[in-house]
Amino acid sequence: MLLYRIEEDITDFTIALGTLQAFSFITVEKGGTDFEMHRLVQLSIQHWLELEGTINHYEDWEICEGLLPHVQVVVGYNLGTQPSLLQRATILNNAAWHNVFCGRYGVAHKKSMEANEIRLKILGAEHPDTVNSMADLAWIYSLQGQRKEAEKLIIKVIEIRKRILGIEHEVTLDSLETLVEIFMRQERWKEAEQLQMNILETNKKVLGAKHNATLETMANLGETYRRQGRLTEAEK
């Protein structure tokens, strides 16, 4: 599946898509919403991301790809003990994130869901590992375009982390940032803006005005203003 950024013009995206199709770099799958990308295009994009610094360990991707068949064998074992099941959850979670990085969101979702179910059953809903699995699953839902499911799950994560860690803990704030991203993907600018302002005030209080996390939140808030056409506020 090809995704375009929220800030990207849909006309430009469509033209680019048409050019790729014209040169057979991508082919349209049944239904017209999914696309198969030529292997050479995948390699070119990965190389470009390396040059841009977005991917720092491309060699690790190849290693992980080689390990995936072994992962499938291991997770296929009928494991009965709790430690073995928890290890299975860890393997599934790691495999899920590798598939996310490779754009295989459907595969990632299945693995993340199973990892979460194992941890929920053995560790309980409020164990840190279970909550982390829930947060991962929420993000994968968002990547798949399942915004309602993503929002519902990340709100549950936020509530647990607020209660156990407090609103000012960095992990809680990370969850709030995920909710901001989910709002922005739905163009719910006002809700995103209010949440970003709350995060910004907390970061200023806890970390200081010049901390990287504070500055990043300010930049994200400016982007939210820009997307609403409030350019004067964005420049501030």
Explain the overall architecture.
This protein is mainly α and 236 residues long. The protein is built from eleven helices and two strands. The protein has a two-stranded antiparallel ribbon. β1 (26-28) and β2 form a beta hairpin. α3 (58-75) runs antiparallel to α4, α4 (82-101) packs antiparallel against α5 (105-123) and α6 (128-143) packs antiparallel against α7. The longest helix is centred in the middle third of the chain and has 20 residues, at 82-101.
**Helical segment tally?**
11
How is the main sheet built?
2 strands, antiparallel
Helix content: over 70%
**Helix and strand composition category:** mainly alpha
Distance between the first and last residues' Cα: 37 Å
Q: What is the overall silhouette? A: flat
Mean pLDDT score: 78
Topology (elements, then pairings):
Blueprint: H1 10-22, E1 26-28, E2 35-37, H2 39-52, H3 58-75, H4 82-101, H5 105-123, H6 128-143, H7 147-164, H8 170-185, H9 189-206, H10 212-227, H11 231-235
Antiparallel strand pairs: 1-2
Characteristic terms for this protein:
236 residues, mainly alpha, two-stranded antiparallel ribbon, flat
Quick take:
The protein has helices spanning 10-22, 39-52, 58-75, 82-101, 105-123, 128-143, 147-164, 170-185, 189-206, 212-227, 231-235, and strands at 26-28, 35-37. The protein is mainly α and 236 residues long. The protein is flat, with a radius of gyration of 20 Å.
